[in-house]
Each structure stands twice: as structure tokens, then as C-alpha cells.
TrEMBL record:
PROSITE patterns: AP_NUCLEASE_F1_4 (PS51435). InterPro entries: AP_endonuc_1, Endo/exonu/phosph_ase_sf, Endo/exonuclease/phosphatase, ExoIII-like. Mg(2+) binds at residues 25, 57, 186, 188, 288-289. Transmembrane segments: none annotated. It comes from the Bacteria. This is Endonuclease/exonuclease/phosphatase family protein. It comes from Rothia kristinae.
Length: 299
């Protein structure tokens, strides 16, 4: 895995036979595009040549998302939460232009909103699925997911466990339908001690509870998915994807790695490069999360 990227440019040359898939929790897309910021989400996106862009915490009406992201450039699938100003996930697929042909023209071919089997989830803005046809007859399913942050001994934690539990069923269901499945997003759990700078101080907090981490043991264990960023990075601290706005967390790199690319083995084997696009400084962040960008050799 490449070191965290701190510039608004590609860290390595782009292979023409790769798909570039990015995930980022934007912490409110209208704020991420606010022109008063030193660097906006638009500034970042303009330099990253993304094919599929997955968003979490959109927290905006559908019309606002489509205007900011520009429907002329992107095919947008958006699950807006019924609760205003909460959650919201999206998958945007680049349409392409004369100067920038799309690697996925007229796609996705099929989409679904909500985590199947979880009552009412289609209204929570936490799970969307998109199916793609790739050259050579291969299929690809991409999911943008936003797991509840949770809070110990509250209903919020119960909702989180229900979501994680349902994923135990949905992940193998998707893997039965395609060899190439990718679950990306803010999953709000640090899987191992390498994923949190201050893990000892968080063992009793939501996001690093043993019960939460046990679900990830299963996702990456008997269910068979691969943690792509960890596979490419090896057993090193981080690279982190979220830092609190409070204190000196960002400057001290006291972060959490809670944003994932979870792939079936065949897809994980096609991963060529993973980069955390960490902002160069605190005041150039457009979100409290950094994008996680992975290139897959699929086209």
C-alpha cells in the first residue's frame, strides 16, 4: 500500500487497465463543497481520475447532491435518509466525456437500496448496491455502506449490532452471485490494534468493542472477504482514515482506520494500489475522514 497521499494528485501513474474506486465519508456534502474551505471535495475529485465514487454521510437532499456532483459527469445512485441531515450513502459512476472516456459506459446495469432483510433499512441511508458488467463477461457488485457509529448501552448500539449481524448473511449472498464483490465505506469499527492509534483507551468504547470486532473476524475469516487496504499495507499502524476535529488528533496522526474496501478474494487479488488521501494540513481537510482510493486491474 502506498504511503498516505498528501497532495491533490495521483501518487503513481494510472494503469489504463485499472478501475479506480474511491470511498469517503464526506461529513455532509454541502460542507465538503463549501467554497470557503482551502480545499474542497471538488478540488480533490478533479485530480483523482475516479471511476466509481462511493460516499457516506451525504446528509443532503437528492437534488443538492446531484447539483454539487454534476449529473452530466456522473451516474448517481443515492439513498437519502428519511431523517433530515442524517446519514445518506451514494455510488457515483463516471459517465465520461470526449476527453475522458468512461471505463463503465451506460452503467451500473442494476441497483438496489437498503440492506436486504433488515426491516426499514431502505429509508435509513446506509446501504446501496450497484451491479456492473465488465469486459470479458465478468460482473462486479459495489456496495457503499455506512454502519452506525453506536454508543454503549443505548439503542444506537443495538441498531449497530443488528446491521453488523445482517451483514453476516448479505456478504455471502453477494459472493454467491459474483466472484467480484466490493463492500466499501465507513464501517465504524477498528478491526485490530493496528487500526487505532490509542487502542488501549478505546477498548470499552463503540468502534473498538470486542463484540464489534468479532463481526470483522468473521467477515475476514470464515465468510472469506479480504481487507484490501490491510492486505496491501501489511502489519503496520493504520494508515488511518478518520481523525477527530478535537484537539491535536490530526496533527499527531492519532486516528482510526474505520473506512474499508472489503473484497471477495478474486477481486482483492486484482488490487494494485491503495492510497489514503490524507490532507496535507488540518485546515485543508474537507471532511474528518480521508478518502481511501484503490486501483483494481479489471478492464
Amino acid at each position: 500500500m502506498s504511503s498516505p497521499n498528501t497532495a491533490a494528485q495521483d501518487p503513481a501513474p494510472r494503469d489504463q487497465h485499472t478501475l479506480r474506486i474511491a470511498t469517503v465519508n464526506v461529513n455532509g456534502i454541502r460542507a465538503a463543497y463549501n467554497s470557503k474551505k482551502k480545499q474542497t471535495m471538488g478540488d480533490w475529485l478533479a485530480h483523482r481520475d475516479i471511476d466509481i465514487l462511493c460516499l457516506q454521510e451525504v446528509r443532503a437532499p437528492d437534488a443538492s447532491l446531484r447539483k454539487l456532483l454534476d449529473e452530466d459527469q456522473w451516474e448517481i445512485l443515492h439513498s437519502e435518509a428519511v431523517a433530515k441531515g442524517r446519514a445518506g450513502v451514494a455510488i457515483a459512476t463516471r459517465k465520461g466525456a470526449e476527453q475522458h472516456p468512461s471505463r463503465l459506459p451506460d452503467q451500473p446495469r442494476q441497483t438496489r437500496i437498503g440492506l436486504p432483510g433488515l426491516d426499514g433499512d431502505e429509508h435509513t441511508g446506509r446501504w446501496v448496491e450497484a451491479d456492473y458488467d465488465l469486459p470479458g463477461g465478468t460482473s462486479l457488485t459495489v456496495v457503499s455502506a455506512y454502519v452506525h457509529s453506536g454508543e454503549v448501552d443505548t439503542i444506537r448500539q443495538e441498531h449497530k449490532y443488528a446491521f453488523l449481524e445482517r451483514m453476516l448473511t448479505r456478504l455471502p449472498e453477494l459472493a454467491e452471485q459474483s466472484d467480484h464483490v466490493l463492500i466499501v465505506g465507513d464501517l465504524n469499527v477498528g478491526h485490530t490494534e493496528l487500526d487505532i492509534k490509542n487502542w488501549k483507551g478505546n477498548v470499552k468504547n463503540a468502534g473498538f468493542l470486542p463484540e464489534e470486532r468479532a463481526y470483522f473476524d468473521r467477515y475476514f475469516g470464515d465468510i472469506g472477504y479480504v481487507d484490501v487496504a490491510r492486505k496491501l499495507a501489511g502489519d503496520v499502524p493504520g494508515p488511518y482514515t478518520w481523525w477527530s476535529y478535537r484537539g491535536q488528533a490530526f496533527d499527531n496522526d492519532a486516528g482510526w482506520r474505520i473506512d474499508y474496501h472489503m473484497a471477495t478474494p478474486a477481486l482483492a487479488a486484482a488490487a494494485r494500489q491503495a492510497v489514503v488521501d490524507r490532507a496535507p494540513s488540518y485546515d485543508t481537510r474537507f471532511s474528518d475522514h480521508a478518502p481511501l482510493v484503490v486501483d483494481y486491474q479489471l478492464v
